[in-house]
Amino acid sequence: MSTESPEDAEAPRRRRPHRDDLVIAGVGFAAGALSIALGLYNNTAGGRDSGALLLLPLGAMAVAEVLRRCGQPWALVLAVAALAGDIALGSLLATIIMFSDVVYAAVLYGSRRLNRTVMVGSWLFTLGVLVGTLAAFRDPQALLLGAAAGAVTLTPAWTGQLMRAHRERADTERLRAEQTALLAELDRREAVAAERARMARELHDMVANNLSAIAIHSTAALSLDDPATSREALGVIRENSVQGLAEMRRLIGLLRDSSGDSEPSAAPTLAGVGALVDQTRANGEASGLTVAYTDGRPPGLRLPPPVELAAYRIVQESLTNALKHAAPGEVAVRLGVSDDGALVVRVTSPLGDREDEAPRAPGSGAGLVGMRERVGLLGGTLSAGPEATADGKVWQVAAVLPVDEEGMPG
Question: For position 388, what pLDDT does the model report?
Fold first, then answer.
């Protein structure tokens, strides 16, 4: 079982040494070998006595350089041992420089635990050399040894810490940018889906009523061999076709509108419910349907455009469903206001014996879905289903649409 901590897992893992590290190690070893050949030692007396033996710590330091990215912390351990041997044998500048680079790499590429250990160890080593040399030689020039120790350990460690913090900030910003882009894409998809749903509701509500009337009257014209009836049916078909075409043109205008308005200025309002009722009354006459309209809203009531549009579409879809499914009788449309100021839309149509019969015109079932979506967007409630009344069984659609205070009568 692995004993690696979560912090250790954050360190970059490389299976093979980086090619740049191979180059650094090769150049460092060549520079050290050239120094031995030229007799350039940090400690001249010790270096001359050791001679070629300095190649051993130099080679070990070169190996640590090769492992500076992929072999931490063992590369640092090897580098410390190589430095100790190098100082004991006379010391080469190339070995010390490579050691500083290994310390830098340990902080930059090692785990967070190694990072903290190297930083603390560098401070302790630098202070130890400074205090120890001052205590041993009691000479201000011993400060130079402390500065040299800091330059070899503390400076590269601090530099590595700054580079690591910079990389981590860059990684964090990159991740944040990716998350922002992902959220923006999700928002875009949700906006597209919402717009597609709105377009689908508009398309369905605009043409369903007219096409249902066309389907009903064309069926009547085909089933009855009566020129007068056929002529009357064709007139109704033409009227609904013209109205449906006008509605389609309005939808096309909505789609082409680049002003950013959520609804065009020509969106239907509750003022058009009376005309809608008259049209349904004419279309349902052949099926034995009558339509009664009661507007119980207080005089001067002002409603937000989204509420008016939703209420109009609910009435329109309910009347369309009545044309398709209702039994002969009265379809009642009622508008009113609840005690808390919400707009109440209620449409009832007789079911009779037609509950299990096929509809007069085909439907997709999207009407109720669209009504629920419209009501849900306004935070209202919708109920639709059969109800038992004193006059028999009816299908009732009841919607409660909240209205802001500015919509109440002045």
Answer: 82
Answer whether the bond into residue 304 is a cis peptide, omega within 30°: no
Strands ordered across the beta sheet of 343-350: 289-295, 329-337, 343-350, 392-401, 381-389
Spatial CA neighbour of 163 closest among 103, 102, 104, 99:
104
The domains located in the chain, with CATH, are: 6-181 (no CATH), 268-410 (3.30.565.10)
Q: Which residue has the higher pLDDT, 128 or 256?
A: 128
Residue 385 belongs to what H/E stretch?
strand 381-389
Asked if 94 and 49 touch (Cβ cutoff 8 Å), the reply is no
CA distance 31 to 40: 11
Position 11 confidence tier, pLDDT thresholds 50, 70, 90: very low
Q: Give the contacts of 378 (CB within 8 A, at least 6 positions apart).
A: 306, 307, 310, 401, 402
Band of the pLDDT at 408, cuts 50, 70, 90?
Answer: very low
Average pLDDT, the chain: 79
For 409, residues 6+ apart whose C-beta sits below 8 A from its C-beta are 298, 299, 300, 301, 302
How far is Cα 382 from Cα 346, in angstroms, rounded to an integer? 10
**Residue 406 binned pLDDT confidence (cut-offs 50, 70, 90):** very low
Q: Which of these, 361, 380, 246, 242, lies nearest to 311 by C-alpha position? A: 380
Residues constituting the chain: 410
For 97, counting Cβ atoms within 10 Å of its Cβ (0-12 exposed, 13-18 middle, 19+ buried), the class is middle
Confirm whether pTM is higher than 0.70. Answer: no
For residues 36-46, give the mean pLDDT.
84
DSSP annotation string for 339-377: TTS-EEEEEEEE-TT-TTSPPSS---SHHHHHHHHHHHH
| CA dihedral of residues 122, 128, 133, 135 (deg, nearest 10) | 160
**pLDDT tens figures, 90-111:** 888 888 899 989 999 888 888 8
CB 6 within 8 A of CB 42: no
Q: Which residues have C-beta within 8 Å of that of residue 163, sequence separation ≥ 6? A: 108
How far, in Å, CA of 266 to CA of 317, rounded?
19
DSSP state of 150: I
Three-state DSSP at 195 gives: helix
Alpha carbon distance 113, 118 (integer Å)? 9
Packing angle, helices 155-223 and 366-377, rounded to 10? 130
| 91 φ, ψ (degrees, to nearest 5) | 75, 135
